[in-house]
Specification:
Layout lengths: L2 H20 L8 E18 L16 H6 L1 H11 E5 L2 E2 L2 E9 L11 E14 L10 E5 L11 E7 L2 E7 L5 E4 L3 H18 L1 H12 L4 H25 L5 H24 L6 H26 L6 H30 L5 H27 L1
Parallel strand pairs: 1-7
Antiparallel strand pairs: 1-5, 2-3, 2-6, 4-5, 6-9, 7-8
Helix pairs in contact: 4-9, 5-7, 5-9, 5-10, 6-8, 6-9, 7-8, 7-10
């Protein structure tokens, strides 16, 4: 290693050390940096102490000097297991791990609530600061999250020369690629969109209510498309201009759409009337506008790739649409297996029962979210 490379490495470590100590009471919790330079990826990150297992002996949510001294080796083991950088040639070795216990900003003599971690990952191939393209094929994994809601997010700023990337990590999405391609981002967010629909009970129940309205497969496809277009509009609006309403009201409104759609269907079916496809699409589209704001809130929490915004939005929307189609297919199969063998009167009663249950659940969710 040349003298200039050694000097560059020591300078990087000195800057990281100075930043960590200067920001011991200034570094925002659950934030960090990774700087790729030469043959190393230099990391500084602030983690909540509640993310570590078996360290807080007295269960007070903080670490005393005695607990730190007793469990220092265990802390290092958990850091090595849960903070990982992986490349095409496997996990990158971590070295020089330094721990800076950090008490609350306004109470410097209190027990530790945050742990600032400094470390260096050894890269397989040295990178240059003036590289035209950033390092490819690296994946960063973070599995240390606290007990509080604010401690379940981790934002990491990655830099390599003039290239910069913001990673938004969470327990649901603990690993992300460094400087991914547009196609990687598209596939990643497509997967997130599918998961969000399949794990979002309010979205699933709303789709079930729409499907209970009946219709041909083409009409169902039109309704699903109206839902996709509606939430895509407010999803993009919410992401580009932030969600303009309180999340509490958005989530309550989403639950209320279940009650509204189910109530309309019950009222019309009791009068032996049907809603025209045009007006049904209008209703679904209007409800989807509210669902889009909820999706925007979720995606903001997971993090939108700032360098691939278009691919992020496109992938997430495609994932939501694909998830809806999977739900529609599963619902159609279930309906055919369980209900189609019943006589028309029994089918109608079963549909009314399902819609009534949806109205009750939607009402409970609405009140719960308002409170």
């Amino acid at each position: 290693m040349s003298l200039s490379q050694r000097a560059g490495r020591w300078l990087a470590w000195l800057l990281l050390w100075a930043c960590a100590h200067a920001q011991a009471h200034l570094m925002v919790a659950q934030k960090g940096t990774i700087n790729l330079q030469g043959d190393g990826a230099y990391m500084v990150v602030s983690l909540p102490v509640s993310a570590f297992q078996g360290i807080d002996d007295d269960g007070d949510g903080a670490w005393s000097p005695q607990e730190l001294g007793l469990h220092a080796a265990q802390i290092h083991i958990q850091l090595a297991q849960q903070l990982r950088l992986r490349g095409a040639q496997g996990p990158r070795p971590i070295e020089g791990v330094t721990l800076i216990p950090t008490p609350p900003d306004d109470k410097p003599n209190d027990p530790v609530t945050q742990l600032v971690v400094m470390a260096r990952f050894v890269l397989a191939h040295p990178v240059a600061l003036d590289a035209l393209d950033p390092e490819k094929g690296l994946l960063f994994h973070a599995g240390l999250y606290g007990q509080q809601a604010a401690e379940k997010k981790l934002s990491i700023t990655v830099t390599q020369g003039a290239h910069k990337q913001l990673l938004m990590l969470s327990p649901e999405r603990p690993e992300q690629a460094l400087f991914p391609s547009g196609f990687q981002v598209l596939m990643d967010y497509l997967h997130l969109g599918i998961l969000h629909i399949l794990m979002g009970w309010d979205h699933l129940l709303f789709l079930a209510v729409v499907l209970l309205g009946g219709g041909s497969w083409r009409q169902v496809l039109y309704l699903l498309s109206a839902f996709t277009v509606g939430h895509a509009v407010t999803l993009a609006w919410g992401l580009l201009g932030q969600v303009p309403f309180r999340l509490q009201w958005v989530e309550a409104s989403i639950a209320a759409t279940i009650v509204i759609m189910a109530g309309i269907d019950v009222a019309l079916q009791r009068r032996q009337k049907t809603l025209s496809m045009l007006w049904r699409m209008v209703c679904v589209f209007g409800c989807a506008l509210l669902h889009g704001l909820g999706l925007a809130s979720s995606l903001l929490g997971m993090g939108l790739d700032p360098s691939h915004r278009l691919w992020s939005l496109l992938g997430f929307n495609l994932g939501v649409e694909l998830g809806q189609c999977l739900v529609a297919l599963a619902g159609a199969a279930l309906w055919w297996l369980l209900v189609m063998r019943l006589n028309p009167l029994s089918q109608t009663r079963f549909r009314h029962l399902c819609l009534a249950v949806a109205m009750i659940v939607g009402t409970v969710w609405t009140i719960e979210r308002l409170l």
